[in-house]
Write a structure and sequence with these properties.
This protein has helices at 2-26, 28-36, 39-44, 58-61, 70-83, 99-105, 109-117, 127-139, 144-169, 191-208, 228-231, 240-251, and strands at residues 50-56, 87-93, 120-124, 174-178, 214-217. It is of the alpha/beta class and 257 residues long. It has 12 helices and 5 strands. It is 57% helix and 11% strand. Strand 4, helix 10 (191-208) and strand 5 form a beta-alpha-beta unit.
């Protein structure tokens, strides 16, 4: 009897350990959190007329916006008024995601299913690729150029694979890729960083030029000349007003009938 109890306890610990490991590796908690923004909207629109799917990082998730809707929520509201329909939004944005992490998450059956049902797809990724490479290059100044170029090539590859995977699930929906923005709009001591942001966006445009039914939305200079304290919630993330600026930029590029 005692051996059975020990065996059961050991199995339970093994199972619990496996669950914790999975959560750590797959960033499941962040993914679950990303679903919560639009839970009410999805329930409300069960017999949906139009579905938007958002993939990306904190820009899609809406970090810095008290309503946690990011630019996606701003576009949703304006698009509902234009289409005269209720829109189902499925937001898979995960804060801190890089393009490599996005590719891993795109293996999810739930995400694939959502992509296949989408009428419109938004993708924003690259800011964290850029920031990570920037930090690494500053810690190794002698290798800075090589680090940046390697990161750019990885980003290019990941974008190409991401579009391929999206099209495998949904060949028809229009894809809108939102570029990365300059969080240092008026700082002359950040000119080098601004130049690198431009390089990241140029790489995204290069990849998109080979895609069908895909539009690049530039938000690189959306905060130029703006007071950072008015439009940002912290050093990197916009606030509600900042997301409204980005949302307007995205909405104005939509291909609407």
């Amino acid at each position: 009897m005692k051996k059975q109890v020990i065996l059961i306890a050991a199995c339970f610990l093994l199972l619990a350990g496996g669950i914790i490991f999975s959560i750590t590796q797959l960033n499941i908690l962040s993914v679950f959190a990303s679903f919560s923004h639009y839970k009410d909207s999805e329930m409300k629109n069960e017999g949906r007329d139009f579905t938007m799917v958002a993939l990306g990082d904190s820009l899609s998730y809406g970090v810095g916006n008290s309503g946690n809707s990011g630019y996606v929520g701003k576009v949703e509201k304006r698009l509902e008024g234009h289409l005269k329909k209720e829109i189902t939004v499925k937001d898979y944005g995960v804060p801190d995601d890089t393009s490599t992490q996005l590719l891993k998450r795109m293996q999810s059956k739930q995400l694939k299913s959502s992509i296949s049902q989408a009428d419109m797809i938004f993708l924003n990724v690259g800011m964290n690729d850029y920031l990570n490479s920037l930090l690494l290059s500053k810690s190794k100044p002698k290798e800075a150029d090589q680090i940046i170029q390697k990161a750019l090539l990885i980003y290019q590859h990941n974008l190409m694979v991401s579009f391929k995977k999206i099209r495998e699930e949904n060949p028809k929906a229009h894809i809108y890729m939102v570029g990365i923005y300059n969080p240092f709009p008026n700082r002359t001591d950040k000119l080098q960083e601004s130049k690198l942001i431009h390089e990241w966006n140029r790489m995204a445009v290069k990849v998109i030029s080979r895609q069908k039914n895909t539009t690049f939305v530039s938000v690189e200079d959306v905060f130029t000349g703006k007071n950072k304290q008015v439009y940002f919630s912290d050093e990197l993330h916009p606030n509600k007003k900042g997301y409204t600026l980005i949302g307007n930029q995205v909405y104005n590029r939509l291909k609407l009938n």
